[in-house]
Amino acid sequence: SIQVEDDRSGLGIETLRRAIADNLFYLQGKWPEIATLNDFYMALANTVRDRLMPRWLNTIRNYRRSEVRVVAYLSAEFLLGPHLGIKLINLGIEELVRQAVADSGLALEDLLAQEEEPGLGNGGLGRLAACYMESLATLEIPAIGYGIRYEFGIFDQELRDGWQVEVTDKWLQYGNPWEIPRPESAVMVRFGGRTEAYTDDEGAYRVRWIPARVVKGVPYDTPIVGYYVNTTNTLRLWRAEAAESFNFQAFNQGDYYGAVDQKIYSENLTKVLYPNDEPLQGKQLRLEQQYFFVSCALQDMIRLHRGAGGDLRQFHQKFAVQLNDTHPAVAVAELMRLLVDEHRLPWDAAWEVSQSTFGFTNHTLLPEALEKWPLPLFGSLLPRHLEIIYEINQRFLDQARVHFLGDSQKLAQLSLIDESGERYVRMAHLACVGSHAINGVAELHSELLKQTVLKDFYQLWPQKFQNKTNGVTPRRWLLLCNPRLSQLITEHIGTDWVCQLEQLRQLEAYAEDREFQRQWRQIKRAVKQDLADHIQQTLNIAINPDSLFDIQVKRIHEYKRQHLNVLHIITLYNRIRRNPDIDIVPRTFIFGGKAAPGYIMAKLMIKVITSVAEVVNNDPQVCDRIKVVFLPDYNVTNSQPVYPAADLSEQISTAGKEASGTGNMKFSLNGALTIGTLDGANVEIRQAVGAENFFLFGLTIEEVQQLQESGYNPWDYYNRTPDLKEAINLINSGFFSHGNRELFKPLVDSLVYDDPYLLLADYSAYIDCQDTVGQRFRETDTWTRMSILNSARMGYFSSDRAIREYCQDIWHVTPISVQLKP
Ligand SMILES: CCc1ccc([C@H](C)CC(=O)N[C@@H]2O[C@H](CO)[C@@H](O)[C@H](O)[C@H]2O)cc1
Question: What are residue 548's DSSP bridge partners?
Fold first, then answer.
């Protein structure tokens, strides 16, 4: 008898092919001959989704078991990237599906390319949250990610005449097969209004909050599949809807706008992601977004806990809640409101629970990125929370007063309320007071936190402070984005490295092996050729795959110093112009990254890159020895072919400014060598790969502080460094701007008169280091050995290692393997 597999779960190639055809017919409602590629993508996506459902529902069943402790990761951003590819890999069905799609007359690559990525984040912080969610599932840790389901994610970037132009990110226009709406789990969120004290039926003093507006929060669940495990955790993203989507009375009175204004107002709440990556905007809608998803999340957790028969006094034993920077920090006040006002726990008991529940991760030292809300705004939007924050502050300062013997200056510095001028609520302080653990994201950063922005808290609670150096998931950032290198690695050391990245160290044995070196080089060459073909097709720029691919991809920001990279390019260009026969190593400089729309200097940095590119790429004297490319719309999808293709990874931020970086890890993992400063995780990468396999340059954090204290005058460096002066003068002359001397004046002036990020001070060391890079690249075997050793020694920088540390030191949770019960 013919064995027919279940259409929904079967993994036979014929069953998969039939399931795709069925979903195309029944879900997309299309005949194959008229179906679009997107229809086939949707049909395939639903076919794959069916196959993860048993894991997902059995994992969810676990959450409800009272004895199961769950990690809740609260983040305003989750930069997930496309789903289909990583789900095929983590389910272990990639080759089966590739065959089934081929049997349907299509190519899997073409369907993968159809997916609109959910760009629900800006950069490092959002992507880290996504890597951590994937590692939590792979490590079989029960976890829920809580965030916002923005209707419009990070803008799409187009370059028009070399300038960034933002285009709305309509990621939901064709629907999203990877989410399930859960209207039955909606919760209500209040805003504005006033509070009222009253005595309850037990005669206890109580406060009620009479809101001005109520909005409905509707959750949408997305499965996060672990690698080769049954655990499939939930990412619960909240969408705002009108509590009353249509006001019939208003309509009857002919007030048609009134009938829907609530709907418009409410839905505006989760309409769009704020595209700022560091500079603060302090807009009311931003605070509303933060409070909205935090209240939804905490109400959801309390419902789950009580649903499992839990007592709220043990809430912290059920949930370990991590605050991903200060964006969800209002959670400290919201949990107190829910426990005290709604569930009538005594203040002290509630505070005990609250502090034991929260952990806080800081991701930036930039003063302009530390969130503080004007008191009037905060008080008018969240009147009850302000009262609670006053109470928390009172009790905290009483404690601090004892410790600091009434040092009022110190108390003012510690206070949750900044009383220095305009009055503000300091969200980082609220997070520190309300959490039992505070961590930075790289050793240097965590040290700087204790010495600078949070030093007073460190003095008060040294035991709370920890370091958790960032990590990246090897499933997306090696197995998925670099299948050829992954295969070479697996052929030599087996497959364990995918979940035990430390296993890569076994590659050290092959670092000098000539045949292995040849294969390693061949794969890098092939990946570079692919990127060259992509750039030729999409940007019509011909690049030489044998040139040194020198890549800097990350958000555009002055502290990341993309403009220092440009100064190197112009310096090389001037060398060629001075002596056209000069023998330089052919280089392809590749940039990518979005600028926050309101960040003028960052936008000017993009323009100077594209302007230099236009001149250098078309200058016959250069004759292709240098090419400069700005890859538009840098996002997760577009970054995946870039990390594997790099020879050189640019990590050149001013020491003390980049909290960690994670791109630096992705590059090294894929065999790129790093040119970088002693900043963020560069320090630990250099320690891991060996100083001899890392191109270090620049001022250390101590030297930066000394120079700034001793009075830094960039003009002196400009004057006494001929190559630097010539490069800056060339920009200033209008040479790259069709003679327009005004265009880049703001950039040049900021450098020669102010230079807050010390580019001019680091210029000479950078150029010298780049010359060393060029020489080393000529020594092919040496470079290949260094490249192999870089990959071999990146095991520590797996997000699995980071998550194991969070589980052990902050969340105190242990893995639970999921049984697939029918
Ligand atoms: C209020 C606007 C805003 C938005 C985002 C942020 C994030 C904290 C910025 C961010 O993404 N920081 C990056 O976080 C990464 C993950 O830890 C680090 O690797 C980067 O060094 C850090 O810049 C700050 C301020």
Answer: 587
ipTM comes to: 0.98
Whole-angstrom distance, CA of residue 259 vs CA of residue 435: 43
Give the mutation target among 77, 79, 125, 289 for probing the ligand 1 site: most ligand atoms within 8 A of CB. 125
Catalytic residue flag (residue 270): no
- Is residue 292 very low, low, confident or very high in pLDDT (cuts 50, 70, 90)? very high
| Residue among 751, 753, 755 nearest 727 (CA) | 751
- Give the whole-angstrom CA distance, residue 570 versus residue 293: 47
Each residue's pLDDT tens digit, 690-701? 999 999 999 999
DSSP 245-301: S--HHHHHTT-HHHHHHHHHHHHHTTSB----SSS----HHHHHHHHHHHHHHHHHH
Q: Determine the 3-state secondary structure of 206 from DSSP.
A: strand
User: Which residue pairs, CB below 8 angstroms and at least 24 apart, start in 764-772?
Assistant: 764/721, 764/724, 765/697, 765/698, 765/699, 766/564, 766/567, 766/568, 766/652, 766/675, 766/697, 766/698, 767/568, 767/571, 767/723, 768/697, 769/675, 769/695, 769/696, 769/697, 770/568, 770/675, 772/695
Identify which of 207, 211, 237, 203 has the alpha carbon closest to the alpha carbon of residue 222.
237
For the CA of 325, the closest atom of ligand 1 is 8
The backbone region for 607, taken as left when phi is positive above 0, alpha when psi lies in -120 to 50, beta otherwise, is: alpha
Report CA(799)–ligand 1 centroid distance (Å).
17
Question: Which position among 234, 473, 662, 677 bears the catalytic label?
Answer: 662
309 C-alpha to center of ligand 1: Å?
38
Q: Which residues contact 408 (CB under 8 A, 6 or more apart)?
A: none
Distance CA 606, CA 481 (A): 26
Closest CA to ligand 1's atom 5: 277
Q: In three state form, how does the secondary structure of 7-58 look?
A: CCCCCCHHHHHHHHHHHHHHCCCCCHHHCCHHHHHHHHHHHHHHHHHHHHHH
Buried (b) or exposed (e) across 137-174, using 16+ Cβ within 10 A?
Answer: bbbbbbbbbbbbbbbbbbbbbebeebebeeeebebeee
Mean predicted confidence (pLDDT) in 703-722? 97
Closest residue by Cα to atom 13, ligand 1, is 124
Q: Which amino acid is at 186?
A: A
**647-696, pLDDT tens digit by residue?**
999 999 999 999 999 999 999 999 999 999 999 999 999 999 999 999 99
pTM: 0.98
| Nearest-angstrom CA–CA distance, 526 and 520 | 10
Does position 822 have pLDDT exceeding 90, yes or no? no
| Binding-site residues, ligand 1, Cβ < 6 A | 122-125, 128, 276-278, 280, 325, 363-364, 369, 371, 441, 470, 658-662, 680
Q: Are 129 and 471 in contact (CB under 8 A)?
A: no
CA-nearest of 140, 226, 143, 51 to 818 is 140
Atom of ligand 1 nearest to the CA of 441: 17
CB hemisphere CA count around 236 (13 angstroms)? 26
Annotated catalytic, 666?
yes
Q: 355 burial class (0-12, 13-18, 19+ CB within 10 angstroms)?
A: middle
User: What tokens appear for 426 in the block?
Assistant: 């300091």
Paired with 144 in beta bridges are: 72, 234
What's the average model confidence in pLDDT over 31-37? 97
Do β-strands 78-79 and 119-120 pair in parallel, antiparallel, or remain unpaired?
A: antiparallel
- Residue of 555, 557, 568, 793 marked catalytic: 555
- Residue 279 clears pLDDT 70, i.e. is over it: no
